[in-house]
Design a protein that fits this description.
Elements: H1 13-26, E1 32-37, H2 44-55, E2 58-61, H3 62-71, H4 75-86, H5 92-102, E3 111-115, H6 121-134, E4 140-143, H7 148-156, E5 158-161, E6 166-169, H8 196-214
Parallel strand pairs: 1-3, 1-4, 2-3
Antiparallel strand pairs: 5-6
The protein binds adenosine-5'-diphosphate.
Domain Adenylate kinase active site lid: 158-193
Enzyme class: transferase
GO molecular function: AMP kinase activity; ATP binding
């Protein structure tokens, strides 16, 4: 058996124990590949971490990845920022490139949750090609069919912890301490696109470009 090059002595015992417990819990879990589709504020980002932990999957949230790229001012982030600020979709080729890469992460070995991808028919066709190359398929598509009328209150009260993507809501899911993340105590922020005006544009993009994707799945 190959000897590990990692010096385990430097890793805290609690971290080692937690990782061992996680591996024992995850080992018997079947592989699962899920797509979550729904309008902004429909609950994809809230439900994903719960599903991820229960089924030992990686959570691939294209919005979070794009926001990280924008904040790091990477070439990808600079290209994506303008569309995101307007609530429009980022170009298919940019997003397809991201997903193709991250799906290969070791943490996606048991499967993944696609949150916010595919968002166009072209992206769905590219996803089919990626899955065929990997010899895997989508097991379930969860359609968060929420009425537009309730989304503005959800979006305008949403606060997030940027580093983890954990989301809160001032009325429906308040943090234990106002304004700070329950786990790290770090400050929460509101997304630049979480305003009534930008939501209108995001909903228009959703109904025009993303909703047709739902009809691709039996
Ligand atoms: N698959 C995608 N294709 C194109 N643009 C995307 C995609 N995923 C996210 N984006 C961009 O990132 C923004 C935020 O995405 P996300 O966090 O999933 O927000 P939402 O709450 O609208 O689902 C979107 O409004 C869009 O500009």
């Amino acid at each position: 058996m190959a000897s590990s090059s990692v010096n385990l002595e430097e890793i805290p015992s609690e971290s080692l124990m937690n990782e061992l417990l996680r591996r024992m819990k995850c080992a018997p879990k079947p592989e699962k590949r899920l797509i979550l589709i729904g309008p902004p504020g429909s609950g994809k980002g809230t439900q994903s971490p719960i599903i991820k932990d229960e089924h030992c999957l990686c959570h691939l949230a294209t919005g979070d990845m794009l926001r990280a790229a924008v904040s790091a001012k990477t070439p990808l982030g600079i290209k994506a920022k303008e569309a995101m600020d307007k609530g429009e979709l980022v170009s298919d080729d940019l997003v397809v490139g991201i997903i193709d890469e991250v799906m290969k992460k070791p943490s996606c070995k048991k499967g993944f949750i696609l949150d916010g991808f595919p968002r166009t028919v072209a992206q769905a066709q590219k996803l089919d090609e990626m899955l065929e190359r990997q010899g895997v398929k989508i097991d379930k598509v969860l359609d968060f069919a929420i009425d537009d009328a309730v989304l503005e209150e959800r979006i305008s009260g949403r606060w997030i912890h940027p580093a983890s993507g954990r989301s809160y809501h001032t009325k429906f899911a308040p943090p234990r301490v106002p304004g700070v993340d329950d786990v790290t105590g770090e400050p929460l922020i509101q997304r630049k696109d979480d305003t009534a005006a930008v939501l209108k544009s995001r909903l228009e993009s959703f109904h025009r470009q993303t909703q047709p994707v739902c009809f691709l799945f039996p």
